[in-house]
Design a protein that fits this description.
The chain folds into 3 domains: 41 residues; 147 residues, D-amino Acid Aminotransferase, Chain A, domain 1; 159 residues, D-amino Acid Aminotransferase, Chain A, domain 2 (Alpha-Beta Barrel). Helices cover 26% and strands 25% of the residues. The protein contains 8 helices and 17 strands. Helix 6 links the parallel strand 8 and strand 9. The protein binds pyridoxal-5'-phosphate.
């Protein structure tokens, strides 16, 4: 079947117009052939074509690691292109003790989700945007990056071969984690001589232990997350360990997460440890402008788009912390958190409370975003990518 598909594809692609249905069929064969060849070494295709669910308590998924069966790995040397990736069982990877990522933090990560629709289709949300963000981040971190096509293809392969780990509709999503790291050995401070692009996945439920209940955020006054000219705007692994101190301290005091202020004036809202922030006042929805210290969230971008469609005025600008006092609503956005309502923010020992629940802008935007992600609402924006259901 693999060889037949490859032959058919070759025959078809030589003579077809792009976009024709036969051409799409050819592209499909091309995709399944590549998948088949990545799998050929260790596993039979029949291993991947079952429709069953993994044995998991789907009603109680949190945001912990439950590794799905397979991961994708490819490597490349500096100034070369990444080789064709291979799928293997999820497991430990070997790294030199002097790998660039271990010694100098040369690494980036991404996150996207695959959802199962009511009819059993599997949809991945905007992986091309993750691919582009990784490309920009890689440039900042002096790393080569996979092409957009290779990135998206790897994500699709991972969703397909791990499809039994995609939760039932409404129970969560398969979180897909692409990683790009300097894997080659280096001693003097310099870019690593070799890089690894790896994708693994884990089924997840709610990010916060609060579930869908409103979050209580704490505004950090001692620590900052990013500085102008630094790397706060890219998803480098080095942006995350430094927030652990503030995050742990806030959680120990009963807060859900930390909201950071800008590092220069200590006055303007930036973002939360792993999500963006929005405030709502009347018909105006505002979010901090991205200027290199804030991650340009894909959910942020999608929510801005949806808010426009819903008739809101959206402003990307500097937001002084004092504006929170007058805000009607506050919410967070991110792949992991989706759209999470904020019930309170504590700043300088003062707790400011916000409207949440029925009739809120947050809930309205959440319904549309999740509707598109899960196939309940027609995706007129071309944001979702459907994963072929079966490998022939
Ligand atoms: C620091 C930070 N801000 C914002 C986000 C939200 O980005 P996205 O919506 O692309 O997941 C994330 C998560 O990826 C993040 O780590």
């Amino acid at each position: 079947m693999i060889q037949t598909s490859a032959c058919l594809r070759n025959l078809l692609t030589q003579s077809l117009h792009p976009g024709s249905s036969l051409s799409k069929l050819a592209a499909y064969f091309c995709y399944t052939c590549r998948l088949a060849s990545s799998l050929q070494q260790e596993h039979k295709l029949s291993d991947y074509s079952d429709n069953e669910y993994a044995d998991l308590d789907w009603d109680n998924l949190g945001f912990g690691i439950t590794p799905a069966d397979y991961m994708y790995i490819t490597k490349c040397s500096k100034d070369k292109n990444f080789e064709q990736g291979k799928l293997s069982r999820y497991g430990n990877i070997g790294l030199s003790p002097s790998a660039g990522v271990l010694n100098y933090g040369q690494g980036l990560y991404e996150g996207t989700k695959a959802y199962r629709t009511e009819e059993g289709r599997i949809l991945v949300f905007r992986p091309d945007q993750n691919a582009m963000r990784m490309k920009m981040g890689a440039e900042r971190m002096c790393m080569p990056s996979p092409s957009i096509d290779q990135f998206v293809d790897a994500v699709k392969q991972i969703a397909l071969v791990n499809k039994r780990w995609v939760p039932p509709p409404g129970k969560g999503a398969l979180y897909i984690r692409p990683l790009l790291v300097g894997s080659g050995p280096v001693l003097g401070l310099a870019p690593a001589p070799e890089y690894m692009f790896l994708v693994y996945a884990s089924p997840v439920g709610n990010y916060f232990k609060e579930g869908s209940a409103p979050l209580n955020l704490y505004i950090e006054e001692d620590f900052v997350r990013a500085t102008p000219g630094g790397a706060g705007g890219v998803k480098t692994i080095g942006n995350y360990a430094p927030v652990l101190k503030a995050l742990t301290r806030a959680k120990n005091r009963g807060f859900s997460d930390v909201l950071y202020l800008d590092s220069v004036h200590r006055k303007y809202l930036e973002e939360v440890s792993s999500c963006n922030i929005f405030i709502v006042k009347g018909n105006v929805i505002s979010t901090p402008a991205t200027n290199g210290t804030i991650l340009e969230g894909i959910t942020r971008k999608s929510v801005i788009d949806i808010a426009h469609d819903h008739g809101y005025q959206v402003e990307e600008r500097l937001i002084p912390v004092d504006e929170l006092i007058d805000a009607d609503e506050v919410f967070c956005t991110g792949t992991a958190v989706v759209l999470a309502p904020v019930g309170s923010i504590t700043y300088k020992n003062r707790r400011i409370e916000f409207r949440t629940g029925a009739g809120s802008a947050c809930q309205e935007l959440y319904s549309t975003l999740v509707g598109i992600q899960t196939g309940l609402i027609e995706d007129k924006k071309g944001w979702t990518i459907e994963i072929p259901h079966q490998i022939n």
